[in-house]
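Supplementary Methods, section 5.1.

A reviewer requested that the exact input to the structure prediction be made available. We therefore reproduce it here, unchanged from the version used in the analyses.
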Amino acid sequence: MFGRLTNVRIKAAEDAYEQGRIDDAFDIAVSTDLAAYGRIQTLREKLADHCLQNGQEFMMDRKFTEAREQFRRAALLRPADERAGEWINRADQAIADEQVATRQRNAAIQEARHRMEAGSLNGAAAALNLSPKRDPEGLALNNEIARRVEKSAAMLEAARKALDDNRLQTAVGSLLEARKLNARQEGLAELESRIVRECVDAASIALREGRIDRATAEIRLLDSIGESTSARREIESAVNLANRAAAALRNNDFDGADLLLGRLSNVATKAGWVAEARKHLRAIDDNRRALFEGPLGMAVSFAASSVDRTQSNPAETLPARPSFPPPPPVHVGAAANREFRGERADAGLPRRLLLRIDGVGSYLLIRGDRISIGRAGPGASADVQLVSDLSERHADIVRAGEDYFVVSQSGVELAGQSTDHALLQNSDRIRLSRRVKLTFSRPSLKSTAASLELGEGVRMQSECKRIVLWSGPILMGATRECHVRLAPTLGDFILVERGNCLFFKAMRGDAGRNIMLGEQVNVGDLSFRVTDWNANAGSRGMVVS
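The structure derived from this sequence is encoded token-by-token as follows.
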């Protein structure tokens, strides 16, 4: 019975081979229970030859996976034949080589696309040289590169024609489109230089004639080109000064407008209207002062005093000699300014303190949520006074809860950008003028206190190393979180204000104690003294060397 079944299976395999059903014939021929039969051995030889031939044809067609499968079958059908093993190795190597080539091709296509979108058409073409010559996607990319080269050349020619017709806005737009398509196109840089020169010249003429809006419009055309051109930067700075002066005038900040126009006169020497405008601004200031110092000013002050006294005590008589408000705070004396800020002898701790640490240095401590920075000189009113070309109160550092802001009608530069109001972040660099630079620090989240580090070339008498904005505990120690950095051997301490008194303690294992102004404090190797800043002899301004 089993012999008849075996013959049936062998017969089925032979019929399948003759009918071209090679897979069916192979499945039966490789059965181990039929291996001893002579007829099946003959069929195996035929099938093995067939698989080797098919595999070689697949190799010619670069169908390496299919070829390997045919060689594997040949090895199963004829295990003693070394040729099948050799062909398997060849197929494996071909598969590995093809995978490497595919990765290289994909990388080349991706790099070509990236360079093309970045405007580097030559770079994109060079990247495509690493892909197969007849790759469909590579051919499509080559066609797109050629199209962009042609379009970029057309846009460049349109920009050149618009410039010749003095249509600057159209010229700039066409140039930007050409640069976006092909950033390294021949003639692009030369045309860009021409456009920048034309815009700068047009803005300079408009500014010289007092047409600030027109000068601003010309400069705005260069928002995306000519960034590295010194002529563009100079006229842009001059137009910015003119616009800031106009904004100051709109806000009735006549002194700020005059200061900005003074700076403008140094860079726009041919703008005759600047001197005329400054003359009018000074006349406004003189007239305001004259009004407040005359009968009308006396009457305004008298009426204000009458209202205040009537509201507080109707039965009280009017003062015999009513005082009138001072002129605008352009030249407010230091004493008057301290009174305005509430710095009085009976108000507890002074607003400004000097911390001197032996072997470490000096620190200016300023209490309060707002400090002003300005120029030094007679009648200077700022908390921090700089000998420079700044306005009298050039900028304020304001604390609002956990945040600090820089505020300035005169304008400051923060992180390379001009601003008049900005949130400060730790390590922000504040530039008040060409030579005056400060660094803001908020070293620790454990305290709202912050500090201002003096930039290179800025120094303070008493050799203060930094200014501490005292609104929370002052941390003293060796870590980066400390407002006052000490050597590790000196220890870690906290200085706080408690009940209008100074309180000092070690960070660990010390109950602390109150200290007096002027008292020499010695704790281990640490020795320091806190005094009233205003009581120090000599000038208290900062000097820019």
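Residues 304-346, 537-545 have pLDDT under 50 and may be disordered. These observations are discussed further in the main text.
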